[in-house]
Write a structure and sequence with these properties.
The structure is a single chain. By secondary structure, the protein is mainly α. It has 2 helices and no strands.
């Protein structure tokens, strides 16, 4: 189950939200056909695109 929260700039998460994140960290990642594990080449391409996006975002 996925929950979406809108957090505005400067807003701090509630204690309940922080607790949910800590609980989620304890659960294993489950890969399937809709969300397969990335190969090392795909991970490298994804990481590169994130760096490029962030570089353009800050300019």
């Amino acid at each position: 189950m996925t929950e979406t929260f809108i957090i505005n700039k400067g807003q701090k998460p509630t204690d309940e939200q922080l607790q949910e994140v800590m609980e989620a960290k304890k659960k294993p990642i489950i890969f399937d056909e809709d969300a397969p594990e990335l190969s090392s080449a795909m991970y490298k391409a994804f990481r590169s695109s994130v760096i490029q996006r962030n570089r353009n975002k800050n300019a």
